[in-house]
Design goal:
2 copies of one chain form a homodimer.
Chain A (H helix, E strand, L loop, with lengths): L6 E6 L5 H11 L3 E3 L2 E3 L13 E3 L2 H9 L3 E7 L2 E6 H9 L3 E5 L2 H10 L4 E6 L3 H10 L5 H15 L7 E4 L3 H15 L7 H18 L1
Parallel strand pairs in A: 1-7, 1-8, 2-7, 3-4, 8-9
Antiparallel strand pairs in A: 3-6, 5-6
């Protein structure tokens, strides 16, 4: 199957500002579609089905797994989380660049199924700034913050598996850089085989005509 | 030697508009330096030493070759053409992205010496448009135009050796895309090893401090 859009997988430490960055991407540029995950956990206050997640039953989720209907999935704290394949493929076919926010294990699984997916890692400008942002939320206990930092240490080990890193210091600048990375990817020769083939044929015809 | 800048090699059919595009890049963005070639051919009217080429004697050129002072060189029509290494390395070390306009054989030689160089191929929107531009110059005979088209057929065979292609339809748009490609390249993990190493260390220290 030939995809016109690019699957853009975004990972990064908790507190790196991925959520805000994704919103900015959607607002600032019109070529993106955000993938919505499917989960069996219950909606939290303010969460909306189809916007934040597709909330489904365990049975419905396992049926999806059986149909190979998920790009990737995982189980955390007794709940399933996964990426429905259909929406992703529809949007890619329609020429949209699909952004998928996901942690590293999922990102690597996506890369297996979509080898041309772009893997991007969002980083805070410094570890101290990461800590400040986690504390600044004011909603987390010291224990949670410590766990997030420990998790960041873990995740930092996988950065080299990513195609690109971006540093989220200034939101607009970071969104611009992310966009540049996607624009660049569209210019790889393998994504322009049709155009290259056409111009080769046209050149051949022209040269023969000149003789 | 660690380079902070990126070596950007630009090739493309004669008539694809590389020269104008390079000028636009230099005007529109401040991170670029244009590499100036060295040649043993005589200056044409209006050409300036150090701007269009470094004009040197055959002996001086061959001395450069002997000192491994050229990134690449070739001999056309009894004249040498080459890229002085010193200027390129100075600019890269100073953090400039150095643009090198060169044909495919030279581009591949540069890639051997600088494996992290970015190879970009500039294409016209169509073969017919390429012909129109070659004819439109009004300075070339039909014979020259035919030879250029034949050469384009040759060069088109090598496009897959390039990292990216850009289509020069709208000058500003094309320059923007070229710039995006260079911006993206700066975000590859291997170009940010220092930053990644630092943040890993900082995270380790923070986590230990929290315990």
């Amino acid at each position: 199957m030939k995809h016109k859009g690019i699957l853009v997988v975004v990972s990064g430490f908790s507190g790196a500002g991925k959520g805000t960055l994704m919103k900015r991407m959607i607002q600032a540029y019109d070529n993106y579609a955000l993938s919505v995950s499917m989960t069996t956990r219950l909606p939290r206050e303010g969460e909306e089905d189809g916007r934040d997640y597709f909330f489904v039953s365990k049975e419905a989720f396992e049926e999806k797994i059986g149909q190979d209907g998920l790009v990737e999935y995982a189980c955390y704290c007794d709940n399933y989380y996964g990426t429905p394949r259909e929406y992703v493929e529809e949007q890619l076919a329609a020429g949209k660049d699909v952004i998928l926010e996901i942690e590293i294990q999922g990102a690597l699984k996506v890369k297996e199924k979509f080898p041309t997916a772009l893997l991007l890692f969002v980083m805070p400008p410094s570890a101290e700034e990461l800590r400040r942002r986690l504390v600044g939320r004011g909603t987390e206990t010291e224990e949670v913050i410590r766990k997030r930092l420990e998790r960041a240490v873990e995740e930092a080990r996988g950065i080299e598996s990513y195609d690109y890193i971006v540093i989220n210091d200034d939101l607009g600048k970071c969104a611009g850089e992310l966009h540049s990375i996607v624009v660049a990817a569209h210019h790889a020769p393998f994504r322009n085989e049709g155009f290259i083939g056409n111009i080769r044929q046209e050149l051949d015809v022209l040269v023969k005509g000149e003789k």
